[in-house]
Amino acid sequence: MNIIKKLSGILCSALLLFSCSEKNKSNSDHELLILENVRLIDGKGGIPIENTKILIKDGKIAKIGNDISEKDAEIVDLKGKTIIPALISAHSHVGTLKGTTTKPENYTEENILSQLKKYQDYGVLNVMSMGTDRPFLFESGLREKSAKGEIDGARIHSAGYGFGAPNGAPPLDFAMDKVFRPTSVSQIPAEMDSLAKTKPELVKIWVDDFNGKFDAKVKPEIYEAIIDEAHRRNIRVAAHVYYLSDLKKLVDAGIDVIGHSVRSEVIDNETLAKMKAKNVIYIPTLSLDKYAFVYAKKPEWINDEFFKKSLEPGVYEMISSEKYQNDIKNSPNYALNMKSLEIAKQNLKKVFDAGILVAMGTDSGAMPLRAQGFSEHLELQLMTEAGLNPLQALTVATKNSAKALKIDQDFGTIEVGKTADFIVVEGNPAKNIKDTRKIISVYKSGKKVK
Residue 92: how many CB atoms within 10 A of its CB? Predict the structure, then answer.
């Protein structure tokens, strides 16, 4: 009888412990967080909302307004601080950059995770890796784990392996050995079938000669077939372009996304009207063009810790050396690169004013100069230099980029029902876009991650 009583007592204690454990688990699974005294820039383009509250529940935005009161919620006072949506890059590269090199062997789990964490530290929580991924990403399940929030860092999206020209762009020495390089239209269906197995969110085509570095570009009949085959499989296509003449042909061929600025000349109104009618998305990547010449002299940010911490080891020493700066200044394309940026800025303003969807991308991670994380904040500054106001630039980098990646149901703006991805900053980016760099904290799915 005593044994039965003892067993009964042990069982009751175990059940009580289990009940408490489940209760604690339930509480941790349903965390409530109230941010109060917030200046809110919601990403939708309107003026900031001053001194409001935001309720976060289960990683989502549950309510916005001053009539919020939750008994068990954690309260964070953000008086004097501004909240903006987490940034989204619709054109980046992940995994092949390490130190001052861009090589296939750099593409490891450790390197990918490190770079996704870096993007996260800078408040960039979704990135599209534009056509330079490798089989490991798809075989390892990293992309799926990233999407589910099972790994730390930005969520990685992928355009698979991409298509380029034989003996042309993109350069093989930039870890581009997995890019398809068809020589005939007949090869494309099988190559597209192979790519489709990776479930890419976009297909990337490089249509450029890199300022005459290569003798040939992807031929129109090739990229027309690529676009047709991708569309048959319900996959959109993004193109790397430089020349207006290529833009016009690509728009006629049904391209979905322009992945860089047109930099050869200003886009004419007829082409803009056609782009708008066909819902073409435009990603200007102004920072790429800035990096092409800016280190000929010391830019204002060269010794800023916000910049230096984004660099791979050895890059700061490289770009700050007198030899490197002189090499840039004496390069044959130095003047052309400066002119290209100015044309790119003009085209961004024309495209934006024409009502075409502009999304943010930077080409960060493609090479050592294009620092992951910092580039996205520099891009915001360059967009304002092109004539967008700070709120318009922020909308491009959040709401519009989410639309471009077709993830806008969950991301891109701070509104009820969406994932609580946001950045807390000092100052007011609506007045000074550089205030996005004054990061206090980063929240991913309602959890503080920095």
Answer: 31
Closest CA to 379 of 249, 225, 265, 261: 261
Spatial separation of the C-alpha atoms in residues 407 and 220, rounded to whole Å: 31
The one-letter code for the residue type at 213 is K
Half-sphere exposure of 384 (CA within 13 A, CB side): 19
| pTM as predicted | 0.92
3-class DSSP assignment, residue 309: coil
* pLDDT tens digits along 244-273: 999 999 999 999 999 999 999 999 999 999
pLDDT in tens, 27-82: 334 589 999 999 999 999 999 999 999 999 999 999 999 998 888 889 999 999 99
Return d(Cα 386, Cα 337) in angstroms, integer: 16
CA angle 319, 240, 179 (to 5 degrees): 90
Note the helical H segments in 141-243.
Answer: 142-147, 188-196, 220-232
Question: What CA–CA distances, in Å, run from 194 to 96, 98, 231, 273?
Answer: 21, 28, 15, 35
Q: Are 216 and 167 in contact (CB under 8 A)?
A: yes
CA gap 79, 64 in Å, rounded: 16
Strands (E), 154-302: 155-158, 203-206, 237-240, 257-258, 281-282
- For the chain, domains (ranges, CATH) are 30-85+413-450 (2.30.40.10), 87-411 (3.20.20.140)
The Cα–Cα gap between 376 and 285 comes to 9
